[in-house]
Amino acid sequence: MPLIFHWGGPRHGQVGDVRDDMVTSGVLVYDGPEWIGVYEPLDPPQIRSTPKGRAEVWVVRE
Length: 62
Known about the structure:
It is a single chain. This protein is an all-beta fold. It has one domain (3-60). Helix content is 0%, strand content 48%. The chain starts with a strand and ends with a strand. The model has no long low-confidence stretch (mean pLDDT 86).
């Protein structure tokens, strides 16, 4: 499972394990109930060290 660092939007600053099948299209869509948002990889790609490990930065898509 990829580790994603969220930047912007309702999950800003959160780090989450995301199932492989959720990131096959290049965008990550949360449809609730707790969060609603669309995220995409930062361009150029960036990796951050987090307490959970190294995570790829994904930004909210507006």
